[in-house]
Amino acid sequence: MLLKDKVAVVYGAGGAIGGAAARAFAREGARVFLAGRTAAPLDRLAEDIRAAGGEAETAVVDARDESAVDSFVDGVAARAGRIDVSFNAIGYGDVQKPLMEISEADFLQPIVTAMRSQFLTTRAAARHMTARGTGVILAFGGGGPQTLPGLGGFKIALDALEGLRRQWAIELGPHGIRVVTLKTGGVPETLPEGFPGGDAIVDSLVGATQLGRAATLADVGDVAAFVASDRARTLTATDVNISCGAIVD
Predict the structure, then answer these.
(1) Fewer C-beta neighbours within 10 Å, C or N terminus of the chain?
(2) DSSP state of 216
(3) 3-state secondary structure (DSSP) of residue 198
(4) Core vs surface per residue 20-33: b (16+ CB within 10 A) or e
(5) Burial degree of 188 (CB within 10 A; 0-12, 13-18, 19+)
(6) End-to-end CA distance of the chain
(7) Nearest C-alpha neighbor of 35 from the set 83, 81, 88
(8) DSSP state of 16
């Protein structure tokens, strides 16, 4: 088990990406603490994890709220005795429109949300990780050199996330803490069932890859668990590209 006896916090656990990572963490032996803004999906995920023999606890937390994040993380550390992994996979509430058509508020929404949330959750976990000289910070949705028209502030938020990751990595590295982002180029399973134009979107995601297939949720979970484990102890200050070649570094 890659994460046996580890303690992992997952933000956005009620969503597809966060849920996939949480399941993989638990399967690999971690005790997982599931955070999100809506209780019902967290509770369903926790029940599934427990049914499979894992350990899971839930908490309703707004990852953009400083006091809420700090209180949650301090509580996890007090109950579990440590925090080994913090993974932030929340959605950024982006509105995707051409820049000439988008409002200032809609443009800034994903950028502000990404920076505020990723900063707060990383800082809260790092306070506990530094005392032990070890830990892993994971984020989802790294950027890349390519972009598409009509994305509003979304791609800019992802690029900003990479900048934040670099800054955290250089400041936390001396304390034994690794900081990594995961990027996929799109996971078809995250599209809601019956989403208008969904088939065309899936075709475009797959068509952009070099392997003729896109990453699955299981792929995301498996890679996240590996990166969070000690087997990836040399990985920090970088992103892990699991886009099947859709994003060319």
Answers:
(1) C
(2) P
(3) helix
(4) bbbbbbbbbbbbbb
(5) middle
(6) 31
(7) 88
(8) H
| 3-class SS of residue 75 | helix
- What is the structure's pLDDT at 144? 74
How high is the pLDDT of residue 47? 98
Long-range contacts of 192-200 (CB under 8 A, 24+ apart): none
User: What residue type is 221 in one-letter code?
Assistant: G
Torsional class of 150: left (φ above 0), alpha (ψ -120 to 50), beta (otherwise)? left
- Residues 115 and 36 sit within 8 Å (Cβ to Cβ): no
In one-letter notation, the amino acid at residue 58 is T
Cα–Cα distance measured from residue 150 to residue 100, given in angstroms and rounded to the nearest whole number: 9
The CA distance from 46 to 19, in Å, is 10
pLDDT along the chain (249 residues), means of 10: 97 97 98 98 98 98 98 98 98 94 97 98 98 97 80 93 97 98 92 86 92 96 98 97 92
CA 99 – CA 25 distance, rounded (Å): 38
| Strand order, beta sheet including 177-183 | 55-60, 31-36, 7-11, 85-88, 135-140, 177-183, 238-241
Reduced DSSP (H G I as helix, E B as strand, rest coil) percent helix, strand, coil of the chain, to 5: 50, 15, 35
Question: Both tokens of residue 188?
Answer: 């078809």
Could you tell me the two tokens for 126?
């790092």
Instruction: For residue 61, give the amino acid letter.
Output: V
Q: What is d(CA 109, CA 67) in angstroms, rounded to the nearest whole number? A: 20
